[in-house]
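Data availability (excerpt). The following record was deposited with the supplementary files.
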Amino acid sequence: MSLIRNQTIVESLTGALQYISCYHPPEFLRHLSAAYAAEESDTARDALRQTLVNSRMAAEGRRPICQDTGLVNIRMRIGLDVRLEGDRTPQDLCDAAVRAAWADTGNPLRASVIDDPLGARRNTGDNTPVALTVDLVPGDGIDIGVMAKGGGAENKSRFTVLRPSDSVVDWIVEMLPSLGAGWCPPGILGVGVGGSSDVAMRLAKDSLYAPPDMLDLRARGAATPDEAFRLELFERVNRLGIGAQGLGGLATVLDVKLKTAATHASAMPVAVIPQCTATRTVNFHLTEETLFDLAPPMLSDYPEVAGDDGTPPRRVTLGDLSPAATGSWRAGDRLLVSGTLLTGRDAAHRRMIELLDAGAPLPVDLRGRAIYYTGPVRAAEGEVVGPAGPTTATRMDKFTPRLLEESGLALMIGKAERGPAAIDAIRRHRTPYLIAVGGAGVLVARAIKAARVVAFEDLGMEAIHEFVVEDMPVMVAVDADGNSIHQIGPAAWKDREPEAAE
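Predicted structure:
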């Protein structure tokens, strides 16, 4: 019987959580680099380039890859010959580790977890509680997997129950385009098949702890039916042409993971959980003597990427933009924006609509302004703001027509596609929507030269900030005429021959 002390568990988990915030897993980085090297779409290639540049910047600066530092998922496989010290539960210990990791002043992380989900939705302030699963297994140690799961990908999880005669691959391929780009492809699809509804979802999540190995699997070929399933789904999903950030291209997924379980003869439960381009996981083994002690990756592990591909971006100054100027932008144009913009996410938009409903003035004047959908990480010493990449714009779609009608807002910046109602409002008011690369939080933050909270301070990271930006890299996603790059791009790259990706 081995005794594993509370301090050993908490300190190891704290170190692992700080580690995964800053570093892509090496195998994921290898797969991302291979996708960049093979990509033929200029827009998708540029998005992958920014992702790789951001990854290296995060590693060098020891700051989060993405501003959404995630809901913490932890998987503990505790050996039957292990005794835990005292009476603290695994949940208690994991929550203590998250509190410590999120309070690290050298690398503060973003508190994204709220309680009372049907009521006040108050931020817990320390990112607890953890989503924890525990299994008892043979042995005298603890195998631990740690995953930071961003909301953009987690929100796209799907579950269905198929007939036993149905094709799981067909269902996933038909369903996947409906996810849009909010999960920040290219990433990994975790697939769980069998069990019951809760078991299938757990299988899909559990599969995502394994490092990607699709490059090796494609090189050697399938040796089992499960591997054949993975290869078929990988190839068919990538032929959809969705591409990086949904811009159209060859790489929509870097790997497909699969776990199965026995199930009832009448059913085929299927769960799909995507993992984003800011995949952050680590696995380690804990014993009486060993702590988590993983060295940072070598900078030589990061690929050298070329400079900007395609047509050079156009520099524009916020505040000096006329309707004629913004109306000349076309979907897919690359811009470098400078000037002053405001931030606002779901909670801030909801409050602004409530004020409009009450006939009260907004706390900030939006006329002629740009709003950026982001919730930044708290600044570390020497920073004006922490990582500040974009959040999924479709969550703001329900508020967009009203704001454009009554506030005079001139420009919106976020990530992923817009829905039909938002695009219609964009067309009617000729208010373009731009995107930054999802998961490139450090890269975007380098363009922010000043930051301050100007409204709704109680909302924490969801407060309205004012940013002064210089050469912030963005792309026109929906132009003033309502043309969407998220429709144009994938349509142009759909059904490309798989040999193009070799």
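Summary of structural features: The domain at 314-489 is CATH 3.20.130.10 (fumarase).
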